[in-house]
Amino acid sequence: QVQVVESGGGLVQPGGSLRLSCVVSTSVEEFETMGMSWYRQAPGQQRELVAELSRLGRRDYSEFAKGRFTISRDNTKNTAYLQMNSLKLEDTAVYYCLAAGIFWGQGTQVTVSP
């Protein structure tokens, strides 16, 4: 059974940076076939797409993430990353990793506060 575990969230001041990690418990061969995505959900809001990275390396970002966030992956570690820079108060949310379009992690809290 595939498990997805996020980490790296925390409390950061506006303008700061965080790097989120997402480890997928599967074989390296299977992980390489997976598209990876990051979503977020703020209190009282719907879950929304942040960024996605296809197995072939195509990256897509939501407008709010462009120029500030970078999605990447290390197939040797079964891990996807989300580098977040220039964080804003409105980036506060629980960030979720989605593997292969079907396997969700439990989420990691990101709080941006002065």
Question: Would you give an account of this structure?
Answer:
With 114 residues, this protein is mostly beta strands. 4% of the residues lie in helices and 48% in strands. The chain contains 1 helix and 11 strands; from the N terminus they run βββαββββββββ. The chain has one helix spanning 28-32; strands at residues 4-7, 10-12, 18-24, 36-41, 48-53, 59-61, 69-74, 79-84, 93-99, 103-104, 108-112. Strands 2, 4, 5, 6, 9, 10 and 11 form a 7-stranded mixed beta sheet that branches. Strands 1-3-8-7 form a 4-stranded antiparallel beta sheet, with no helix packed on it. The longest helix has 5 residues, at 28-32.
How would the blueprint of this fold be written?
Layout: E1 4-7, E2 10-12, E3 18-24, H1 28-32, E4 36-41, E5 48-53, E6 59-61, E7 69-74, E8 79-84, E9 93-99, E10 103-104, E11 108-112
Parallel strand pairs: 2-11
Antiparallel strand pairs: 1-3, 3-8, 4-5, 4-9, 5-6, 7-8, 9-10, 9-11
